[in-house]
From TrEMBL:
InterPro entries named in the record: Glyco_hydro_29, Glyco_hydro_29_N
Cellular-component GO terms for this entry: apoplast; lysosome
Record-level GO BP terms: fucose metabolic process; glycoside catabolic process
Localization, UniProt: Secreted, Extracellular space, Apoplast
Name recorded for this polypeptide: alpha-L-fucosidase
Species this protein is from: Carya illinoinensis (Pecan)
Superkingdom of origin organism: Eukaryota
EC number: 3.2.1.51
Broad class of the protein's primary localization: secreted
One GO MF term attached to the UniProt entry: alpha-L-fucosidase activity
Residue ranges of domain Glycoside hydrolase family 29 N-terminal in the record: 82-346
Similarity field: Belongs to the glycosyl hydrolase 29 family.
């Protein structure tokens, strides 16, 4: 054959790819891309709901205990109080809400009806309410005033409706009282717009009339009327009592429990409520309820807790994977007392002073390993960003040995001066950490068990100075996922003067 055959040679050496070969090549390219972006690890069940996550991020919410007890200097009313004593002539729900907003609080919960049975709204199912009060000539509605004030400032409302009713004659008669209670639930949840938390108190006097509450009916009705609401009780289903009224969770505190082990008003389960259960099948995080004063209702003779007490409560609640429900009771005029407003302002300012600066931010962060390698998106640098839920450090899953996972903050030559260490887990994928230790330049400075949404270690030895802070995860369910780390200086913490944590 004559002529130039170079083209033929080229054709013979590099024949065109078949459609099958082209598809294979594309698959290889796609696999390479996918290999560069590893997926998140599988979650560890159970998981929080969207509403529970939003609730947890509030950190501090406010309780408003207000009613006839405010005017009788009592904590538990008898049910025989005359509605005529309820006359808060200066009531200003805007002042309540402004106090909350100034303290960084986004949810306020009002005792719409306490154990005395007096209703702060004009219920059509009883006249033992504001209807028979001289306040606003019987035309007042405390619930509506709070709802309006909260809406104006863009915060949320919750309601407390006591199951125990010392006034209503239907109490003690199962069917009539449960019908009455459900009717009032429907009033509150249909008339006043969105309610973010409903509070079912398990408290009842030792000599109270026997009564069976139809909790399942109540819970179903609540979820039917407002599906995004969080239901609080000793047994959840969305939020559980922490087991005390001191504002203190267990040093081990799981958001998980077995709801089949819980019952409302059962004093024998308080330890279980306090610590939770690492084998729990239900996500029911704890709420720490405590009052800014000794009592729940306002009493002229009482004063608010010291700032140091409130900070200790914060470390033992929010700092132990809980939400803090702080009661700030309005007085008989219908206002939050100036002493309480001032103390609450001090509390918020102190929290901001302590935690507004993260000394770890300008540091280098290293880890034992990371999922997907350096470009995998799960590196240790994630613990210093502003997302404390959905970005996180994840180690490789091939490190199966207990204690093999660690993350370290490395400072420059000047080192770091701090006395608080903050650790947060990516709880959107489950609570995992069972045991952890913290080292400063190779010396242990703190140790603990659970972490959860937030764990705060206020160092018992006070202020420390060093260069390298290593957090070592000794035990966890699956690989630990740490979403945030903080090193902070608390100028209010003086362990030699205030005693141990």
């Amino acid at each position: 054959m004559s002529g130039d055959i170079s083209g033929l040679v080229g054709y013979a050496t590099h024949p065109p790819l078949s459609s099958r070969e082209l598809n294979c090549a594309e698959d290889i390219k796609k696999r390479r891309v996918l290999e560069q972006v590893p997926p998140p690890p599988l979650p560890i069940l159970p998981l929080p709901s969207f509403s529970q996550l939003k609730w947890q991020q509030r950190e501090i919410i406010m309780f408003l205990h207000f009613g006839v007890n405010t005017f009788t200097d009592s904590e538990w009313g008898t049910g025989h109080e005359s509605p005529a004593i309820f006359n808060p002539v200066g009531l200003d729900a805007n002042q309540w809400v402004n106090t909350a907003v100034d303290a960084g609080i986004s949810l306020v919960i009002l005792t719409a009806k306490h154990h005395d049975g007096f209703c702060l709204w004009p219920s059509k199912y009883t006249d033992h309410s504001v209807i028979r009060s001289p306040w606003k000539n019987g035309n007042g509605d405390v619930v509506q005033e709070l709802v309006d004030a909260a809406k104006a400032r863009g915060i949320d409302v919750g309601l407390y409706l006591s199951p125990w009713d010392r006034h209503d004659p239907r109490y003690g008669h199962d069917l009539p009282y449960n019908e009455y209670y459900l009717a009032q639930l429907q009033e509150l949840l249909k008339k006043y717009g969105s309610v973010r938390e409903i509070w079912f108190d398990g408290a009842k006097g030792a000599n109270a009339t026997n009564m069976t509450y139809y909790f399942s009916d109540w819970f179903s009705m609540v979820k039917e009327l407002q599906s995004s609401i969080n239901i609080f009780s000793d047994a959840g289903p969305d939020v559980r009592w922490v087991g005390d009224e001191k504002g203190s969770a267990g040093s081990t505190c799981w958001s998980t429990v077995n709801r089949t082990s819980l019952s409302i008003g059962n004093a024998s389960i308080v330890d279980y409520l306090n610590t939770g259960d690492p084998r729990g099948t239900d996500w029911v995080p704890p709420e720490c309820d405590v009052s800014i004063r000794p009592g729940w209702f306002w009493h002229k003779s009482e004063s608010p807790k010291k700032l140091s007490q409130l900070l200790k409560i914060y470390y033992h609640s929010v700092g132990r994977n809980c939400l803090l429900l702080l009661n700030v009771p309005p007085n008989s005029t219908g206002l939050i007392s100036e002493k309480d407003v001032h103390r609450l302002g001090e509390f918020r300012k102190a929290i901001d002073i302590i935690f507004s600066t993260n000394l770890a931010e300008d540091c280098l962060v290293k880890a034992s390993s990371q999922r997907g390698g350096k470009e995998g998106g799960f590196g240790p640098e994630n613990v210093l960003d502003d997302d404390h839920l959905w970005t996180y450090w994840a180690p490789r899953e091939d490190n199966h040995g207990e204690g093999d996972h660690w993350i370290e903050v490395r400072a420059g030559d000047k080192g770091l001066v701090f006395n608080v260490i903050r650790i947060q887990e990516a709880i959107g994928l489950g609570q995992r950490i069972k045991k952890h230790e913290i080292y400063l330049d190779g010396k242990i400075v703190a140790r603990g068990t659970t972490v959860g949404y937030k764990r705060l270690h206020r160092l018992e030895g006070g202020v420390v100075h060093g260069r390298n802070v290593r957090i070592r995860i000794r035990k966890s369910k699956g690989v630990p996922l740490i979403s945030s780390i903080g090193l902070h200086f608390d100028p209010f913490w003086h362990p030699n003067m205030q005693g141990p944590e």
